[in-house]
Amino acid sequence: xxxxxxxxxxxxxxxxxxxxxxxxxxxxxxxxxxxxxxxxxxxxxxxxxxxxxxxxxxxxxxxxxxxxxxxxxxxxxxxxxxxxxxxxxxxxxxxxxxxxxxxxxxxxxxxxxxxxxxxxxxxxxxxxxxxxxxxxxxxxxxxxxxxxxxxx
Amino acid sequence: xxxxxxxxxxxxxxxxxxxxxxxxxxxxxxxxxxxxxxxxxxxxxxxxxxxxxxxxxxxxxxxxxxxxxxxxxxxxxxxxxxxxxxxxxxxxxxxxxxxxxxxxxxxxxxxxxxxxxxxxxxxxxxxxxxxxxxxxxxxxxxxxxxxxxxxxxxxxxxxxxxxxxxxxxxxxxxxxxxxxxxxx
Lengths: 152, 184
Hints:
The complex is a heterodimer. By secondary structure, chain A is mainly alpha-helical. Chain A has helices at residues 3-8, 19-35, 43-64, 75-82, 91-109, 117-141; strands at 12-14, 67-69. In chain B, a hairpin with a 2-residue loop joins strand 2 and strand 3 (44-49).
């Protein structure tokens, strides 16, 4: 499976990204990475905020590669799986991220409160790792889009 | 569940809670159909699942997905060793309200992380045909939240539980006792 295959199957659309877009997605990711440390917030929310930080970073990588997910139910799943094809995330990382996706869905719709502080921390550390990886990857793979680089 | 093990009659009676007479009749029927094999060792007769029986894979699958659920999950958690202080299934699976597509809700208390537990039980989702949703608490956080009357833990602790590791007493101990930071 490649991103091109997903495009052919209609799971992705082509997308023309810009430095401005990457800057904005990174800004949301960084904002959420800061917000998920807010003490006094429930673990469930902190996990959801950290999850969003990671998702925005993954979306930025996909956009830089020239794609965006087609709208639909598996939107988040696609973006998470795409990390293997953009930044070359390993199977464990992708799987861990996807488990948090399920956990977030469950806590939103069925099992409110079934998130521990430790789990929120695990999601935060995963999000930090991914945000870092996407930042570095864009510098080398798409320097023309990297925030802070002089216009190519 | 354990086709490599053989069991003698009283052992099976103890584990299943069936009367000896009924059990003997059922087993001789199963032996006749070659679903189980019997061996004699001294004056004891042993019964064992027969993997050569053409129905074996289907029967094993049925058991794994129903009454054997807890055992399958326990086996998956055992490699985490003392990093799991207690683990149980709660929700519809524990209260036997299981619908075909019921998820398995799993609560784990100990030093293991969510990633550890999710990787240990993840591969079972396909075998069991059900999603497994773990929630993992370090002992300290568990105790703190139980004491604070955390709504989720309160509901779970009041509800039905199917223990995989530890039991009610361990849970009570975990909820009450203060641990040195590295103990659990």
